[in-house]
Design a protein that fits this description.
This protein has about 290 residues and is of the alpha+beta class. It has six helices and 14 strands. A hairpin with a 4-residue loop joins β1 and β2. α1 runs antiparallel to α2. It is globular, with a radius of gyration of 19 Å.
Length: about 290
């Protein structure tokens, strides 16, 4: 390990008071899940969502790595699209010690960029966020099943995960050959095809007050500087829910909930099933030009 020891100050501080989950519990979780989580964030700029006083008080997003972060937390220089702003110096992680240190800094949530340090302008995955407008998660599952079938008919690989919050994320791995503008335009086309397939269930309306009770197909995160919660990442929600990769056949399971898994029960699941994202990096989509033709 790059760090001799990562010390957790105030390990007994409760970050999730109602659930009795402490800072040490969070650090232990991230250390234990590291082998599953790290392959999906290595070499990526990270945004940390920190809660110094636990989730019952407001937190903040930490895009720039603070000066007090130790040297073993590697920084990635990310130029901004605003010429008047200095490049961001963002944290990255490639060892369990990094995740433990983040937890020690009260960073509950870890959000990762869609591109890697060597290709910051060219994403290596596309994300589709299926966001419900009400509490009827069955609609989200139905839309995901419809989208899964559509992508399969186009020979496009997709990997699903619960968000740990309200919806589902579908990730399409691809070769980092196109810029964000190209990828986002292509993602919009796919979202429009899904909208055509399930018009009574879905909407692409950006204003929440105009979505009614439909599932919002959000492709807008496919842009430079955007991030998403990492697979197996903890959410700053009651119970310490976790974003969990799932198999496509689980989309049809009526017991599936986006907040079903927590840091207390997710390891039981991992001991019972094969990793749904095991082949993520091997199943990259062929070029967008070939698919579009």
């Amino acid at each position: 390990m790059k760090a001799k020891e990562v010390e957790i100050t105030h390990p007994d501080k409760l970050l999730f008071p109602d659930a009795g989950i402490s800072k040490q519990d969070l650090a232990d979780y991230y250390e234990r899940i590291a082998d599953r989580l790290l392959p999906h964030i290595e070499g990526r700029p990270l945004t940390l969502r920190c809660f110094p006083n636990g989730i019952e008080e407001d937190g903040f997003f930490n895009k720039n790595a603070p000066d007090h972060f130790p040297d073993f937390i590697e920084r990635i220089t990310v130029p901004t699209r605003d010429r008047d702003k200095e490049p961001a110096q963002m944290s990255s992680a490639d060892e369990a010690a990094d995740l433990v240190y983040f937890a020690g800094q009260n960073a509950i949530e870890i959000h990762a960029a869609l591109s890697r340090v060597e290709n910051l302008d060219t994403p290596d995955q596309i994300i589709f966020d299926l966001d419900p407008s009400d509490d009827d998660f069955s609609k989200v599952r139905r839309v995901a099943c419809c989208f899964d079938d559509l992508l399969a008919s186009l020979d496009i690989p997709v990997f699903w995960k619960t968000t740990g919050s309200r919806g589902l994320h579908g990730h399409v791995p691809l070769r980092p050959e196109n810029d964000f503008e190209t990828v986002r335009a292509w993602a919009k086309q796919l979202a429009e095809r899904l909208q055509d397939e399930a018009p009574g269930l879905t909407t692409m309306e950006q204003r929440k007050d105009k979505r009614g009770d439909k599932v919002f197909i959000d492709y807008l995160r496919n842009a430079y500087g955007q991030t998403s919660i990492v697979p197996y990442g903890v959410r700053a929600l009651e119970g310490a829910t976790v974003s969990v990769p799932i198999h496509e056949d689980e989309l049809e399971d009526s017991s599936l909930r986006p907040d079903r898994y927590t840091i207390k029960n997710v390891f039981q699941r991992l001991g019972q099933i094969e990793d749904p994202w095991k082949s993520f990096h091997r199943r990259r989509l062929k070029s967008l030009a070939e698919i579009s033709n």
